[in-house]
């Protein structure tokens, strides 16, 4: 690593990056200067001096010439080149070594040809092999304590050049992916249980969902190398497997998509059949793993041996269980392996016996690595105003909007402010001057001119004054639907500052604590950019599909024409809308909209009695507008103005002269009010704008008539039509080359959840377009996030802590001192719950509605407190358990959480308002198991909204949260205050934490939160007389005394008794209701009863009837069981307590 950075591609004086060509020139300069020195002073090395550079610049050639020279001669050459001090200055500079080994190495290492970093990178296989995967010095798997030094690159605050930045990220991303691949291989192959058969072959004693034994493997094509390259241009192979597995697993294998990455594995086990595998012993020797190679799926082969292409046509159904896949192998790796085989090594491509696939979401590493490598091979043009900040140099505030030379003085804030008072309150530091005094005109939208910005541009004295100019946007038509949608959120002053900063050119960092309206701010910025800069395009990037969908759903509610919205990636299916915002969905929308608009043109034609087929295409409609509509409108304007000059009563003129009455017959009546000429003329203009808009849209859609294929249309939509394009950071990394080749352009980037995105995945979206004349056209970069919540997920502790890979670019900018806008008003949680985490922020207050609205003033029914820490001791002598490595569980806390959930459901709490969170994956699975056993199938209780981990729940919220902290021996990863902030900030109205208090109360990092939690009793306090919703105020003293729950068995017994009481009440009410009818029906009917009274779905099939009867019997048994299912809980607990006694 030292040698690498000693020869790094950077100018040592100026710090400017050097290209490969510059480095080659530098090398030639050094070696020619050595040759000249030798030629002039050392005649016995004349052969070296006269040789061409290429023949003497390798280490071997240099050693041949200089290796046998004496120490004196080597020193004289080095001092002549000023590499060491001369003899005269030896006494002044005595810190040099003069031994022969040092001098020889000095001359050779300085003048040997340096291997190009780019060439090495381009020749590097992207798939990890067995030599890297299980090499502890490269991919450490042991828990990293933070002590000691590792031979790994680091992500620090500063970087030498963009090449250095990309290279570090490339290496770390590759190693982190390798660690995850290692875990997947160990899991899948150990499940297959490979044993050595009696004939010496391999017998697989188990099965794995993600891996299958290979029945046949063959390399089918090795294409010739491209000119100037040594590797083959393409290597393809066929892999055959037998899918005699369950239907859903078979379907997963058959649905492997093009470019999915799989791994080919060779195992040669030494263990005999029946040998047990242990996860505590080393994996590789146990299974006899010898080879791992990556491959990329091209497709599955049909019965004729052709690749089945993905497309709209249904995939052919193949007979039998044998399936063959065509895959691409890594060309660089294949060349290395073949070179090794030609020198007597083993041909690894003859021995593969296992193929492993990975989950699609975790399998994007190759595409991301290719993107980074491609960026390193192209000239990365980052905007000038961002370059130094990304590398960590210069003034961190230089890209803030107030420091940018092109700061905009006058901006239309559109519908940001609800009224003039809201505007005044939003700028407490400014004096507000309004251009009009008429109350009726003081309505939004407002155009604001910041006079301090104008003064700065003109080098005048700065005055904090805002000139406000209300303006009426032109009406879009006479219909109600033409009225623009308007924002209804009363933004706070800091939110308005964030919106203002986002509208200005430059870099904007918005720190948004939980519940401070980050998404609302983002959406308003997008809307304002859309209206202020209609020719600019905005790219939205988020960490997750869920966050992107939340953002997109709010954008759709604003005044943005939906034809300008586009959502890329696979997550758009989860959008809660019937509209399809994917590329092909938008193309279909445009084509359907085009037909609707042409129908309107036809109606307009008929209303004007114009002959001909003018509504056939967008082109004919354009001619119709030009020669028929525009001429009529101009004639109308001329005649109206002439009559107004000559006639006294001008109120009727517009109504009489208007040419399009018949077309607007379906508009609200009367169309013209006939009060004043001006008012009616403005209505006529709005009608013409409506017509003009129809033809303007048709002109935009004209390209969709000319382009015939869906692919071309979707590309045109992405490159030309869409103004707001949304995607995840992963999609941006995967599709960069495709977007750049297509000519994709954008002017603004808005990133949500920036603190959760990896450095490199934040950087790639900056470079999704080719530079124009050597400059990047990006004007704004808005990053919204919260570095006090959880960072990007890095599974390997060494990469996470030592290499600092979990540092997001957002967090690095904050650490560098880049100015931020800190949102300071939360509107999610009760103030009391907010106090558990607001200590982590500079200033986090509460919005008015969380202090005043009834929802927050009312207490939680059945609970004495709105939040409480409940101490959970060992159950049967067991606290935390670890069934397998790092799979932590706590049965007592799981049972306690589920019992409280059941209690809440019995009080009447809606299940979708309750979520159960935990800090460990093992506990999540245990809680789900307990719910399945206790209450999942019980119609009175059911399942909570979600059972998941704190990490997965970041960015989400619910009214009531039950939180299990699991650990009883050591605090674990909750010691990270960022995880604590996320855990405490998910609840709106109620938070109940189940934990071992004696452990967590002594943890220094958690003290501010746990000090507040421990001010209340540590035993659960209930008010079982109440029902949801209660009328008791949160701060009021309850009329009845509370019930204290001693421990988990006590809670379980109480919930059981409470449940029986409820059920008996329900049964009584059922009997009372049945009395009037007195109709006897058989419990097990011998015939099929329709599921609906009007249905006619009986069948004559005897077998089906028999099956239906069996299902009915099963349902009856379930009906009898459903009131008994909860009983298991109490019986289990009482029997265990008896055993303990």
UniProtKB/TrEMBL annotation:
GTP-binding listed as a keyword: no
Q: What Gene Ontology terms for biological process does this UniProt record contain?
A: mRNA processing; RNA splicing
Q: Which domain of life is it from?
A: Eukaryota
- Specify the RNA helicase aquarius N-terminal domain's residue ranges: 1-114
Where in the numbering of this chain does the DNA2/NAM7 helicase helicase domain appear?
494-796
Could you list this entry's UniProt keywords, alphabetically sorted: Acetylation, ATP-binding, Helicase, Hydrolase, mRNA processing, mRNA splicing, Nucleotide-binding, Nucleus, RNA-binding, Spliceosome
Segments of skewed composition (Acidic residues): 1096-1111
InterPro entries listed in its UniProt record: Aquarius_b-barrel, Aquarius_insert, Aquarius_N, DNA2/NAM7-like, DNA2/NAM7-like_C, DNA2/NAM7_AAA_11, P-loop_NTPase, SF1_C_Upf1
Q: Which residues form the RNA helicase aquarius beta-barrel domain?
A: 194-358
Report biased composition (Polar residues) as residue ranges: 1080-1089
E.C. number, please?
Answer: 3.6.4.13
Annotated RNA helicase aquarius insertion domain residues: 406-482
Tell me the segments the record calls region Disordered.
Answer: 1074-1119
Compartments (UniProt record): Nucleus, Nucleoplasm
Its GO CC terms are: catalytic step 2 spliceosome; nucleoplasm
What's a Pfam family in this record? Aquarius_N_2nd
Query: Quaternary structure per UniProt?
Result: Identified in the spliceosome C complex. Component of the XAB2 complex, a multimeric protein complex composed of XAB2, PRPF19, AQR, ZNF830, ISY1, and PPIE. Identified in a pentameric intron-binding (IB) complex composed of AQR, XAB2, ISY1, ZNF830 and PPIE that is incorporated into the spliceosome as a preassembled complex. The IB complex does not contain PRPF19. Within the spliceosome, interacts with SNRPA1, SF3B1, SF3B3, SF3A1 and SF3A2.
The entry's function note states: Involved in pre-mRNA splicing as component of the spliceosome. Intron-binding spliceosomal protein required to link pre-mRNA splicing and snoRNP (small nucleolar ribonucleoprotein) biogenesis. Plays a key role in position-dependent assembly of intron-encoded box C/D small snoRNP, splicing being required for snoRNP assembly. May act by helping the folding of the snoRNA sequence. Binds to intron of pre-mRNAs in a sequence-independent manner, contacting the region between snoRNA and the branchpoint of introns (40 nucleotides upstream of the branchpoint) during the late stages of splicing.
Designated name of the protein? RNA helicase aquarius
The organism named in the record is: Apis mellifera
The organism's taxonomy opens as:
Eukaryota, Metazoa, Ecdysozoa, Arthropoda, Hexapoda
What gene makes this protein? Answer: 413548
